[in-house]
Write a structure and sequence with these properties.
Number of helices of chain A: 13
Distance between the termini of chain A: 27 Å
Strand order of the largest sheet of chain A: 6-7-8-3-9-10
Number of strands of chain B: 0
Shape of chain B: globular
CATH architecture of the largest domain in chain A: 3-Layer(aba) Sandwich
Oligomer: heterodimer
Number of domains of chain A: 2
Strand content of chain A: 25-35%
Number of strands of chain A: 14
Helix content of chain B: over 70%
Radius of gyration of chain A: 24 Å
CATH superfamily of the largest domain in chain A: P-loop containing nucleotide triphosphate hydrolases
Chain lengths: 348, 254
Amino acid sequence: MFKKPGLKVLFSLKVLFNMSAIIIKELTKKFGEFTAVDSVSFSVEPGELFGLLGPNGAGKTTILNMLTTLLLPTAGDAEIAGYDLRRDPGEVRNNIGIIFQDPSLDIGLTGRENLEFHAMMYSIGSDERKKRIREVLDVVGLADKADILVENYSGGMKRRLEIARGLIHYPKVLFLDEPTLGLDAQTRRSIWDHIRNLNRNYGTSVILTTHYMEEADYLCDRIAIIDHGKIIALDTPSGLKNCLRGDCVSLAIEGRVDLIAAALGEKEWVREIVPNGKMLDVIISDYEKNIPDIFQTAGILGIGISSINFSKPSLEDVFIRLTGSIIREQEGSRQSARRDRMRRRMLR
Amino acid sequence: MIQGKVIYVLWRREMIKYFRAKSRVVGAIAMPAFMLIFQGMGFRKVEFPGLPESIGYFQYLVPGIIGMTLLFTAAYAGMSVIMDKQFGFLKEVMVTPASRVSIVLGMISGSATTSILQALIIMMMSVLLGFRLPFISAILSSVVIMVLISITFINIGLILSSVLKDFHGFSTIINFIAFPLFLLSGALFPVSNLPAPIRILSYFDPLTYGVDALRGVLIGHCEFSILLDVCILLTLSVLMVCASVYFFRRAEMI
C-alpha cells in the first residue's frame, strides 16, 4: 500500500498537540436482551485511518452511533478528541463529523442549501461559510451541480455531497459508516481518494466501517475485525495477513499425484499438502523462491503440471480464519467451493 | 444555550420547503376552507342559545375555523420530524453541536410561521365570504394569540414524534388527539351548550381558550376573558416547550 509516511507523521504530530487520541473503554450496547456491542475497547491515534471491518449486523454502526452521541451506551466509556462522551456530548459533537450509512440529506433542498444548513448548525460565520462551501464542493467535484435539488442527484452525487458536508466544519475526527456501500467501482475509487486526501491534508482522524475487504485493506492504517459485537482482531492490514501460515498453490497434475505429493512433502518450505483427485493443493512459504522448485521437482519425477493457480492470503482469508465464515455470500460454484476448502485448510 | 443561528436556519429550511411544496399549502387549507364554506354558509341563519343575535353564526364560526387550522397544521408539524427521521435527516440535525433547546425552538418557529400563514389565508378567505374585516390592531393581536395556540399544539406533535418512528402511528395518534380537541373547543358551537360532564372536559382543552381569545379579539365576543385565555395559553406553551426539550434531550433520535 502506497503512503507518504513523512507527511502523515507531520500532521499526526500537529494534531497530537491539539488533542488526545480517541479512547474507547469497554463500550457496550444492549437492545433489550440482545447485546449489539459487547465490551469493545480500542484507541485511535490522531491522524490515523482506522477501520472497523465486519459482516452486516456485527455492531459496527451501533459503535459509531454511540461515538457520535446518537445512542447512549449501556456501559463503558469513550473519550473523543479529549472530551468525555457522557459528560460532554456537546463538545464531542463539536469535534466530530459523520457520514452515515443511510442517506441523510434533505432531498427537498439543493446541494448548496444542504451545506449551508450544516455550516449554520455549526455556527460558522457567513464569509467563512461561503468560502468553505466552495472549497468542499470543489473537493468532491459538485461545484456545477450545487444549485440542483438533491432529489435529482444520482446515488454517487448524493454520497459525495454527504462527504462534502462532513468536511465543512473541519472535524478532528471523522466517522464514515460504509462510505462506498452500493456505489460503482469508479465512484468508489474516487471516494477512497477523497478520504485519503482529507486524512493527509487536514490530519483528520478517520474511523470507517466497512464490510468490503479491499476497502479496509486499501485505506486503513489499522483494522479492527468485529464479529457478534466483539473485536476479534486488531492490527495493521499486513499484520493481520501475516498471521496466516502461507500462500496457497493449486496444481493440476498429469501423472501420479501420490509421487509428487510425497516428494514435495519432504521440502521444509511446504507446510501442508492436500491431494484432491488430479489436483494437488500445496501451502508453502516464500512463494517467490519456491514455486520454481515445485516445477523442478515435478520435472525430475517426469510428472507434468498442466495448470497452476496461486493465491496470496487476503484479508478475507484472515476474516474466515477468525470467524469461520465468509463475509459475503459467494457463488456456490465448484471452483469457489474448492477455493474455500483450500482456504480453510490453509488457515487451520 | 439558545443559538440564534440554529433557530434561524431551521426556520429558513421550513420556509424554503413550505414555499416549494405548493400541494402542501393547498392540502392543509382545503379542510378548514370546506368547513368555512359549507358549515358557515349552511348554518348561516341558525340561532341558538349562547350565540349573540348581533353576531350571526358565520361571524361566530370564523375564529373557530382559524383555531381549527392552527390546531391541525400545528399538530401535524411533528409529521415533518417523522419524515426527517425516516429520510435520515434528523440524525444529521441531532449530531451537530446545536443545543437541543435551539433545535426545538427552531422547529417550533418554522412550524408556527407556516401554521399562522395558513390561518391568515383562512382569515382572508372568510373575508371574501362575508366576514367583517377586523381592524388591523385586532388582526395583530390575533396573531399573538395564534402564536401561543400553535406553540402549544406543535409541541404535542414534537413530543409524539420524538417517541414514534412511523407515519401511520403518528397520524393515527395525532388524529385521535386533535379531533376531540377540535370538537370540544367550542370552535363550532358555544361550550356552554354542552352537558355539564362534557363541558368540564372542554375546560381541559387548550383550544377552548385559544378559540375564545380569538373570538374576543376578532368579533368582540368571548365567554371567559381574553386576559385569562392568554395567561392560560402562555403558561401552557411555556410548559409544552420545556416538555419538548426534555423529550428531545432524552430521546435516541435514530
